[in-house]
Specification:
Distance between the termini: 47 Å
Number of domains: 2
Strand content: 15-25%
Length: 356
C-alpha cells in the first residue's frame, strides 16, 4: 500500500497526500488500494534533462510535442494523413496484416501495421474477430478501463491569487504559479473519501485537484495579462448513480464544485474565469478514443502490467495477427508522456521487417 510506504519516509500529512496524488492520478484507486505504490513509481521513473523523476511543460502546449514528432517523421520520408478514420485492418489470405481500409473505402497497403489506438479499439473494433483467439478477445474485453478523471480547461483574465501566497502588485507569475499546484490534499484521508464517493456513483464533493498554469512559463499560450489553467480532477465515475447521464447539468454541477474548492484557496478565482471546457470520462472516450475515459488505455494495476499488458503472451508488442503491432499506452510499460511503448514497438517491428 502506498500509505504504508509514505508513512515510513514522511511525517507531514499534507506532504504525504501531495505525493499520494501521483499514486492515484488517472487511476480509480485510493492511497489505500493495494498496488497504488506502483503508480507513483511509474510517474517518477525516468528523467528530464538529467533530473531524475522530473516533469516539464512543453513549449507551445502539448500539441507542439505531436508536431515535433510529426516533423521528425516527415523529415525521414513519412506521409501523415489526418482526419482519415480507419475502418478496419486489411488482412491477406494468409492472415497477415496488409494495411488498413479507411472509412471512405480507400485501401492503404503496408507490410506492417502499428496501432497506437487502445487495445479495445484495435482488437475489438478494427480487427476481424474471427481471426483472433477467443481467449485473447475475452481478455481484451475484460481489461479494467475505469477512469476517475474529469479534465477542465479554463481561461482566466488574471493569475489566481492564493491565500497562502498572495500575488504581487505587478501581477507577474510567482514560483508556485510555475509548478503543479495540488488542492484538497491536506490529508490522504481526503483522497480516500473522494475515491469512496466515486465508487458509489457520485462525483467527489471535495475532489482532488491538480492545477497547472502553463502560460505562466509560456506566455504565448494566452493574450497578455490572461492565462490558461489546466485542471486535472478526480474522482468522477464514468457512470453516475442510478444510470444518470453526464449531461450539461451534471457537467456544470461538478465543475462548479471544483471551482468552489479553488475559490476557497484563491478568492476571486471564479470571477476571473472567462471560459471553461469540461471533459468528463464519457467525453474523453468519445473525443479521444480513450476506453472508459482512461488516459492509460487501461488501469495501471499489477494484474495489467508487464507481461500481462495488454494480455498474457502478448506483452511484446506483437499481436495474434502477424504484422499487426500495438504501440500505444495499452502496451508495456503503459501510459505517460515518455514514448517508451512506441519506441519498443518500433524496434520489434523493424526486427520483423528485416526478416520478411
Amino acid at each position: 500500500l502506498l500509505g504504508q510506504i509514505l508513512d515510513q519516509w514522511f511525517e507531514s500529512e499534507p506532504l504525504k497526500a501531495t505525493l499520494a496524488t501521483d499514486a492515484v492520478i488517472g487511476a480509480m484507486a485510493s492511497p489505500d488500494t493495494p498496488g497504488s505504490g506502483y503508480v507513483l513509481l511509474h510517474h517518477v521513473m525516468g528523467e528530464l534533462e538529467g533530473r531524475r523523476g522530473a516533469w516539464g511543460y512543453v513549449a507551445g502546449g502539448m500539441g507542439a510535442l505531436s508536431q515535433a514528432i510529426a516533423c521528425a517523421a516527415a523529415a525521414r520520408g513519412a506521409h501523415i494523413f489526418t482526419e482519415k478514420a480507419v475502418c478496419h485492418v486489411l488482412l491477406g489470405k494468409d492472415g497477415r496484416a496488409q494495411g488498413v481500409v479507411l472509412q471512405d473505402g480507400t485501401e492503404v497497403r503496408s507490410k506492417l501495421v502499428l496501432s497506437n489506438a487502445s487495445p479495445q479499439i484495435t482488437f475489438l473494433e478494427l480487427t476481424p474477430q474471427e481471426e483472433l483467439p477467443k481467449d485473447f478477445v475475452h481478455r481484451i474485453q475484460q481489461v479494467d478501463t475505469r477512469s476517475p478523471v474529469t479534465k477542465i480547461n479554463v481561461a482566466v483574465d488574471r493569475l489566481p491569487s492564493f491565500l497562502a501566497a498572495p500575488n504581487t502588485r505587478d501581477g507577474r507569475p510567482l514560483p508556485h504559479h510555475q509548478c503543479s499546484i495540488h488542492l484538497n490534499c491536506e490529508g490522504t484521508h481526503l483522497l480516500h473519501q473522494a475515491f469512496t464517493e466515486a465508487t458509489h456513483g457520485h462525483p467527489s464533493s471535495r475532489p482532488m485537484i491538480e492545477l497547472c498554469i502553463p502560460s505562466a512559463l509560456d506566455p504565448g499560450l494566452a493574450p497578455q495579462g490572461c492565462h490558461v489553467v489546466s485542471l486535472f480532477t478526480q474522482y468522477t465515475p464514468s457512470v453516475l448513480a442510478g444510470g444518470r447521464p453526464w449531461d450539461e447539468q451534471a457537467r456544470n454541477a461538478y465543475a462548479d464544485t471544483v471551482f468552489d474548492c479553488i475559490e476557497a484557496y484563491a478568492p476571486g478565482f471564479k470571477a476571473s474565469v472567462i471560459g471553461r471546457d469540461i471533459l468528463t470520462p464519457p467525453d474523453l472516450e468519445r473525443i479521444f478514443g480513450l476506453p472508459g475515459g482512461n488516459i492509460f488505455h487501461g488501469a495501471m494495476s499489477l494484474d495489467q502490467l508487464y507481461f500481462a499488458r495488454p494480455a498474457p503472451s502478448y506483452s511484446g508488442y506483437r499481436s495474434p495477427i502477424p504484422g499487426l503491432y500495438l504501440c500505444g499506452s495499452g502496451a508495456h510499460p503503459g501510459g505517460g508522456v515518455m514514448g517508451a511503448a512506441g519506441r519498443n514497438a518500433a524496434q520489434v517491428a523493424l526486427k520483423d521487417f528485416r526478416q520478411l
